[in-house]
Amino acid sequence: MAKTIIDAHNVSKTFNPKTIPVHAVQNVHVHIEEGEFVALVGPSGSGKSTLLNMMGGLDEPTAGSVIIDGVEITELPENKLIDFRLHNIGFVFQSFNLIPVLTAKENVGFVLQLQKMPKKEREERVLTLLKEVGLEDKINSKPGQLSGGQQQRVAVARALASKPKIVLADEPTANLDSKSAENLLNIMAKLNKEEKITFLFSTHDQRVIRKARRVITLVDGKIASDVEQTPS
Amino acid sequence: MLLKLAWLNIWRNKRRTLITATSVFFAVLLAIVFRSLTDGVYDNMIHNVVSYSSGYLQIHKKGYWDEQSIDNTFEEDEQLYQELLKNQKVTHIMPRLQTFALASYAEKTKGVLVLGIDPVKEKEVNNLHDKIIEGEYIETINDNGVVLGEGLASQLKLNVNDTLVLLGQGYHASSAAGKFRVKGLIKLGAIELNNNVVYMPLQQSQYMHGADHRLTSVSVMLDKATNLKKLKQSLQGAINSDAYEVLSWKEMMPEMDQYIEADSTGHNIIIGILYFVISFGLFGTLLMMIFERKHELGILIAVGMKKRLLAFVLLLESIMISLIGCFAGVIGGMLTIKWFMVHPINLTGDLKKVYEEYGIEPIIYFSSHEKIFITQTLVVLILSTLLAFYPGYKVMRLKPVEAINS
Fewest Cβ atoms closer than 10 Å to its Cβ: which of A25, A166, B102, B239? Predict the structure, then answer.
């Protein structure tokens, strides 16, 4: 039996609770197992990004708890939570993910430097990751010299640098053309399959949804459906 | 890594960084040149005043300063002179016998300060001979003439070659009296001295007071830039501290020290205003740097960078921008001061007359004391650190989701 890697238990998030309350997420209960490739879908304002942020410890739920690999992150103090993210969770955001003044190699290595990984080991890991995302010839390019798709591939490499248990991706393909999106998704699917990294996407991109093996649909902050499918 | 990141960050907007650094450059340059000028003027003023009066340091018999009596004199001691001159900072020493007496000419009588001096040594230090406005300067320690302050001569209504009678108290309660030919009149800038002083060759003075080979003080002249406190301690250690006391001009003329302190405070306020103005520029730049990178800061926190590290990067950025301007300002200041040291400002016209009136050389020298440069660098460093507190505080309060969505 696969291990539960994410357990969101009765999670709710209400914005502006004292003025005009907006219930972005309401009593959501989600279990995600190790190695899953999940798409969190729904219309704009359905609460998918909010739920993703709470699962990544970027936002605090108003009620409920989030347990990642047995650690209740909603109870962690801020510095420990940042540290937890550094070692356990990789993030890929919609755009402008990278530090513009650093090269692709430095952007990926940055997380490893925060982890105080020795230089030699770090350089090897960075090179491996950039090779995996097909950017070994762009290691010294700065984000401004890369296309949107290439930038997102660097972001994926950075998200994987610390060998996280899960990667949370918020609309990673939103600003990419079809070819770049396809390419990026293939890389992520390959990593999911080969390295058993759990991927959770918040998306309304059909290309991502088709690749997912499980699709959770949120409507008005509640789970409307949670289905498994065969990726195409 | 953090240093590199901060360095690269400040050059994202080259123009803004250069403008901010330039404002720091001008502030530091102006502050250094201004401070160098005022310190140079003070140093020159002190040098001029102490060379006529106390010297930078004065050696007395222990207890003399509290009870300034001729009975508290000490024997001339060649070994003491050698000890003092051994110190490389000491440029000259001037043995003196300083007493008070009644001066009389015809029907006029006045209390005067009688300074028994070594005319040759005084000449080397303060160019006393150049201040003679009538008659001649005394040339040797046993010359039988005296030189009077022009103000005193005018009060006593006497002229060169007239005879001045002095009556005072000698060593061990003997009476000191003598008749002296007025050899010359001297015009001194210090009004009090000009109205009261009688310069007498040292041996004559000792003879008149029955105090052969005795001195009230040895005045010590130093290089202008010498650290007075340190040297005082060093000389105190070098001489017999049971027999002698060492006093600095600050202890002997506290009013002049207070005047300089007060004047200097005024200048510090002007420099403070200058820095206050440029602080706004630097602060604005720092705020812009944080607000335009809010999204990126959010991402960095999300991927695992602790907020305090981010705040530290902002602090480094603030210090770097400031130090670029500061170092350029220090180099600019050094070059400017170097030029002015080779080409000091010679005052002309009325200002020159005013300076000469007060016995101060009518030249504005610049000080190149290292403390000027160190102080300005430290001020900028402290300023940039303080200014980085607010952006740092903003980072500490940053919520990653809000920042990422900004």
Answer: B102
For residues B353 and B232, state if they share a domain: no
Task: Count how many residues are written for chain A.
Answer: 232
For residues A17 and A27, give the distance between their C-alpha atoms in angstroms, rounded to a whole number.
16
Query: Are B68 and B39 in a shared domain?
Result: no
Question: Which CATH number belongs to the domain containing residue A33 in this structure?
Answer: 3.40.50.300
Residue numbers in B near A97 (CB within 8 A): 299
pLDDT value for B225: 60
Interface of A with B (CB under 8 A): 53, 56, 58-59, 78-79, 82-83, 85-87, 90-91, 93, 96-97, 99-102, 110-111, 113-115, 158-159, 162
**Look-up of token digits 């990278």:** A98
CB–CB of B296 and A100 under 8 A? Answer: yes
Asked if B302 and A91 come within 8 Å (Cβ–Cβ), the reply is yes
Domains identified in chain A, total number? 1
A141, two tokens: 């390019």
Q: B133-183: per-residue pLDDT in tens? A: 999 999 877 778 999 999 999 999 999 999 999 999 999 888 899 999 999
Q: Is the same domain home to B43 and B66?
A: no
Q: Which domain holds residue B129?
A: 55-251
Domain count, chain B: 2
State whether A162 and B302 contact (CB < 8 Å). no
- Residues B221 and B318 both lie in one domain: no
Q: What is the pLDDT of residues A162-217, one digit of tens each?
A: 889 899 998 888 877 888 888 888 888 888 888 888 999 998 888 888 889 999 99
- On whether any CB of chain A is under 8 Å from the CB of B396, the answer is no
- pTM of this prediction exceeds 0.90: no
Amino acid at B297: L
Characterize A71-92 residue by residue with b for buried, 16 or more Cβ atoms within 10 angstroms of its Cβ, and e for exposed. Answer: eebbebeeeebbbbbbebbbbb
A216: domain range?
4-228
CB atoms within 10 A of CB B160: 18
Q: Are residues B61 and B201 in the same domain?
A: yes
CA-nearest residue of chain B to A97?
B299
Assess contact for B331 and B404: CB atoms under 8 A.
no
Phi and psi, residue A216, nearest 5° = -105, 125
CB A154 within 8 A of CB A140: no
Which residues from chain B sit within 8 angstroms of residue A79, using beta carbons?
306
